[in-house]
Every structure is written in structure tokens, then in C-alpha cells.
Design goal:
Elements (H helix, E strand, L loop, with lengths): L2 H5 L9 H19 L2 H10 L7 H20 L4 H44 L16 H17 L3 H35 L11 H35 L7 H21 L3 H6 L1 H24 L3 H7 L1
Length: 312
């Protein structure tokens, strides 16, 4: 998605305010994509599970990155851009591999647990007795008091949980601010060192013709990006929970898409340029609506713990 914008590194006119903003937004978008998958990888590791994220979501997203890479190669973009496209695909594979690992690992654990429970059912009743059922003095009293404590705790307002949620939003906001600072600083350094230079707003016919071969792949990747989040939204709605999902993951996605679209529009609003970048604009700005939908689900469902506590 960000590849078309990052690829424009040809000689051009002096730097203008619009072109500077285009470069800054493009650099922030690039930083967002580079750090995008890290929060979800960390969240899966902390949970020891990948049940919260939809594999269909990741699979369709991966197909979108593959078509994006193919489009970059077809258009003959600079090696740096192709290397970034390869990085995106590689990062997707890491996250998908981690999810498959935890799914297989936890499935084996659940099978072993079910096997042990079946074995315990076949044991004689006397063999299954434990100290809690022997009528020892105080055993029932301890058990009932522990149960009452759990009920009392679950009935209290979860102020600590709400405070943790607020702190999490603050941490995520600071992370977003940090990515913005890194992106802007990266653009300033690239501009000062001559790595980034303003690009002409006029697209010559050769460049336009070269990009036509990648247009179909661009629209294909846009369709994949738009459709990828639908399985995740459906999964969240069915389970009425966003447990296991990293909020920062979707915040970075929203930031990357928004700054990428802004980078294109600040560069030029000419019809030819706009139509050339239309599939990438659709893929980036269109998915922002779906990201906002997931934010609403985070707000409505949270991680499911509060709902469970009330039900108890």
C-alpha cells in the first residue's frame, strides 16, 4: 500500500510545503507498517494463545501483500521498495506461523486434558474422593467462604480493570506519538542527506504505461485489504469479545492507512496521478472504516472479562 508513494524518488522541483507534508506522511506511514505486527506478536506471546485473532484475516491480508509485491516487481520499482514488500510478506508469515504454533500447541493440551478427564470418569467412586469430600472439620467452611469471596469480588465494580484500560489507552497513544516522531525524523534525515528528494507532479507517459501492468494487481490487493478484516469483525461479534487482540496493532494500521492516503493526496490532485494511485487509495482509506468498526468493538466488548464477572 505504501509502496507506490515510497517509490517516487526521482529528480524533481524544489521542496514545497505540500511536497514536504507528502514526504512526512509517507515516512510516518512507512514507520507504522514496519512496527505494525510487533504488538500482536507480543500479545500472542503474553497470552500463550492466538485464539483472539482470525486466521482468515491474516491469510487474506497475506494474499494482499503478495499481490502488492507482485505489482511492485511488475512495475519495476526501485530495489528498496521491493525489499519493503518482501519484508511485509515475511512479517505476515512470522505472525501466521506464531498463530499456527499456538493453535496446534493448545489443541494438543486440550486433547490431553480431555483424555485425563475421561480416565478419571472410569475410576471407582472411592478412588476419586479427595480431602475436600471427606467431611474434614472446616473443609466445607473454607470452600464456601472462598466461593463467597469470589462472588463478592465479581459483583464489585471493576474499577481496577477500568483503570488498567485507561492506562493501556495512554500507553498506546504514546506509542503512536513515538511512531509519528520516528517517521517525521526519518523523513527529515533522508531529505537533508539527499536520500529523499521532491518528485515531479507530472507523470510522463512512459511511467504511466509502466504502471498500467501493475494496476490489476493493485486493485486485487485493495480488494484483499478491504476483505481481510471482515472475518475478524465477524469473529469479535460472535464471541462478543476482543480478548487476545492488540489494540495498538489496529491503531498502527489506522495511522498507516491515514498517513499513506494523505501522502498521496498532498503530492498531487491531478486526475492522471489520482487514477494511477486509486487502487492503493481504496485499499488504504477503505480499510480505515473497518478499523474504526473494530475500535467500536473494543469499546463495546473489551476483552470479555467484565462480561464474565457480571454473569457470575
Amino acid at each position: 500500500m505504501v509502496l507506490q508513494h515510497v517509490a517516487a524518488l526521482a529528480q524533481g522541483p524544489p521542496l514545497t510545503a505540500h511536497e514536504a507534508l507528502s514526504g512526512v506522511f509517507g515516512s510516518i506511514s512507512l514507520a507504522s507498517w514496519i512496527f505494525l505486527l510487533v504488538p500482536q506478536l507480543i500479545e500472542n506471546y503474553k497470552q500463550g494463545s492466538a485464539d483472539g485473532i482470525s486466521l482468515a484475516f491474516l491469510a487474506v491480508w497475506f494474499i494482499g501483500d503478495i499481490t502488492n509485491l507482485a505489482g511492485a516487481v511488475w512495475a519495476g520499482l526501485v530495489p528498496t521498495v521491493i525489499a519493503l514488500a518482501v519484508y511485509f510478506c515475511f512479517a505476515d508469515l512470522i505472525l501466521i506461523g506464531q498463530c499456527l504454533y499456538y493453535n496446534v500447541k493448545n489443541a494438543r493440551k486440550s486433547r490431553k486434558a480431555s483424555t485425563r478427564s475421561e480416565d478419571s470418569v472410569d475410576q471407582p467412586l472411592l478412588g476419586r474422593r479427595d480431602s475436600s469430600n471427606l467431611g474434614l472439620p472446616g473443609s466445607h467452611r473454607r470452600r464456601s467462604s472462598a466461593l463467597s469471596r469470589r462472588r463478592r469480588a465479581s459483583s464489585l465494580p471493576s474499577l481496577v480493570e477500568e483503570e488498567d484500560g485507561a492506562n493501556q489507552w495512554v500507553k498506546n497513544s504514546l506509542s503512536i506519538l513515538g511512531v509519528c516522531v520516528v517517521g517525521a525524523a526519518g523523513w527529515a534525515i533522508a531529505w537533508k542527506t539527499g536520500v529523499w528528494i521532491p518528485t515531479p507532479t507530472q507523470d510522463d507517459s512512459a511511467d504511466t504505461e509502466m504502471a498500467l501492468g501493475a494496476q490489476i494487481l493493485g486493485y486485487a490487493s485493495a480488494v484483499c485489504y478491504l476483505g481481510a478484516r471482515i472475518p475478524q469483525i465477524i469473529k469479535n461479534q460472535k464471541e462478543r469479545s476482543c480478548e487476545g487482540l492488540s489494540l495498538l496493532f489496529f491503531m498502527l494500521s489506522l495511522l498507516g492507512n491515514a498517513t499513506y492516503g494523505a501522502g498521496i493526496l498532498f503530492h498531487s490532485l491531478e486526475k492522471e496521478y489520482f487514477l494511477t494511485n486509486l487502487p492503493w487509495l481504496i485499499g488504504s482509506l477503505g480499510t480505515m472504516v473497518e478499523d474504526i468498526t473494530i475500535f467500536i468493538q473494543f469499546r463495546a466488548f473489551g476483552n470479555g472479562e467484565h462480561t464474565v464477572a457480571i454473569a457470575a
